[in-house]
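Human: I would love a firmer grasp of how sequence relates to backbone shape in proteins. Take your time, and here it is.
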Amino acid sequence: MCRGDRRVAVASTVPEAIARFLDEPTPRDWLDEACTRLPEMLNDHANCELKAASTALGFLYRYPERTALAQRMSKLAREELRHFEQVRSIMDEMAIPFQRTSASRYAGRLRDATRPMEPNRLLDMLLVGALIEARSCERFAVLAPRLPETLGKFYGGLLASEARHFEHYIAFARSECGIGDAKLNERLAELKDIEATLISEADPDFRFHSGPPLQLSKLSP
């Protein structure tokens, strides 16, 4: 359960650059649901950290000749694996078993939106990576004040690294893809629109990056 009465707005805890980047904030219904489903949220969070490490390694394997990108993704993968270990440790302390989860609607549809041919593929994967890291950072920020103290401090402590990962993905999209700012921003706007829809529309499954719960959304006026 969440700490005390934390139903007041908490958007001000989100780093300014992240709040500006995302088109839609996390829905209040999702936050309320997360507070009642901490075991599921933590389990999916652990899965997300594993998948984030795998994504970073995917860049390393696919683009080893891009030295700066490969070096950064190697470091990022190690950070994500460390986060996975930290979440697993918290789960063990809370007697929450780890279970693998399938790809969420959120990640699946964003990746479905990526174009298959280079150089568009690299650009889209980097922009999708930036969106996912930005959303993760935003959710850590809005969750932290509402969670039990130890877990809240842990999530608050993840903000800097998630914001940094977001910045790396955006920086590489600008430096590695040979595309001007106008075209990059145009493509980013298209992907941000997809992301905003996924985060605001009712979702049948509760996940760390899901939209508001489907049943609650049906009951809302």
Observations:
- DSSP finds nine helices and no strands in the chain.
- The domain at 24-213 is CATH 1.20.1260.10 (Ferritin).
- The chain has one domain: 24-213.
- Confidence is low (pLDDT under 50) at residues 4-11, 217-221.
